[in-house]
Design a protein that fits this description.
Blueprint: H1 5-14, H2 26-33, E1 58-60, H3 76-85, E2 89-91, E3 94-100, E4 103-108, E5 111-116, H4 131-138, H5 147-150, H6 157-170
Parallel strand pairs: 1-2
Antiparallel strand pairs: 3-4, 4-5
Helix pairs in contact: 1-3
């Protein structure tokens, strides 16, 4: 559940077939993308080797917009392509109904659909955790909220790193 950056990362991890993290097995990466390092094929590109994922994966999002639309402009296309090549089913406009008896029941376009599942991984949003703030301030300690502690809507690594750098420069 969830098709933001974390949902895509988890789906990529779950669909690895070679037991290695992305990029650790160069030969498998080159075969998957059809790169001919021997330069036998004109242009150095040959037919890519399809690698079936070791499991069925559904990437589901509540928004009705294109799945992965919020991913980076320069990298989103490659994440979507990778998951399509691995057979991941991507669904937008999904309502989550229930999980029971090995099925995740969702509604899409007003119709209910029961997906066979053995696990459900939720990568759907986050909320700032600020419970410590009041106690620290009451104790007279300075508190600075940055990154996901300040605002989670649209949070990505660049924003969190920028917040940390800006705070460090002020201190």
């Amino acid at each position: 559940m969830g098709a933001g950056g974390i949902g895509f990362d988890v789906a990529e991890y779950l669909t690895h077939t070679n037991g290695h993290a992305e990029g650790e097995n160069l030969a498998a990466f080159l075969a998957e993308w059809g790169v001919d390092t021997d330069m036998v094929v004109p242009g150095g590109l040959k037919k890519s080797e399809e690698s079936a994922a070791p499991r069925t994966v559904y990437l589901l999002q509540r928004k009705s917009s294109k799945v992965g639309e919020g991913l980076g402009k320069t990298t989103g296309w490659i994440h979507r392509t990778t998951l399509k090549k691995r057979g991941v089913t991507m669904m937008a406009g999904v309502g989550y109904e229930r999980v029971e008896d090995g099925k995740l029941t969702v509604s899409v376009g007003g119709e209910q659909r029961a997906l066979d599942v053995d696990s459900v991984i939720v990568c759907a949003g986050q909320e700032p955790l600020t419970e410590l703030r009041a106690g620290l301030e009451a104790a007279g300690l300075p508190v600075h909220l940055i990154g996901g502690a300040r605002e989670t809507n649209g949070l990505d690594a660049k924003i969190a790193i920028r917040d940390g750098i800006e705070l460090a420069a002020k201190l």
